[in-house]
Batch of 2 targets.
Target 1
Amino acid sequence: MRMHICPVCERSDRITRLRAHWSALPPQGRAAAPHLARPSLNDERWAGPVGLLTVGCALLVSEAWLGYVGVAGGGVWLVSLRDKAAQAARRRAEWRRKLFCHRCEHVFLP
């Protein structure tokens, strides 16, 4: 591992990866430091927008004007869920890169 220096205490002797520090914490330590926790995955339900899109397509095939509304609404809903999932993935990737200084308990990116 490359030598990293803490931006707060300017020391490099007690720097570890945040994920290693988090996994080594006992349950009591994890409860006391929720700000160090790994970001949660977005638990979005994909069935709603996919169902709306399917119903919209069925109505569109039967030449009902509500089909356009269903397809547009389902599409917009799916795009917003996709963006939320991408943001959650970026937050988790950033968390995996973070380092932790045991001396001053500072979390920072290399």
Target 2
Amino acid sequence: MTRALGILTPDKGQAAEAVEVPVVPEPEIPQRPPAPPPESPRTEAAGYAAALECVRLVIAWYNRAIYLEERSPSPDRERLDSLVSERRACVTDRKYLADAEASEVARMSLVYGRKLRRLLEECPAEWGASQLTDGINGPASSSMRSHSF
């Protein structure tokens, strides 16, 4: 046997020695759950449109409430400030919606849908639910007026 580069190699005419190599088990890689299928552009667009409509209707509710409060015989300044502040938060959310992830869009749709239902349930009888959506233009507006919240 000759030694070359630190490796034993058999000389001509000699048989190589059998070397037993231990079997090393492969490390177990934890399996990730399969990723949910990506939302289709059409589904994302529909979700965005629904969320935008909910936010828009809540803003319309606040606009109407502010209008009526300002024109009441004795406007409540604290209530008016609260309404303006709430409307401002909705407008900020509407701006944020354009860049939101699909999951956030879905969450906002639920939040604003609930908020609109609550606001319509609390609205004074003299307003009437249809007055809150009068003059609102958009594809879902007529359907929103025809459904009770």
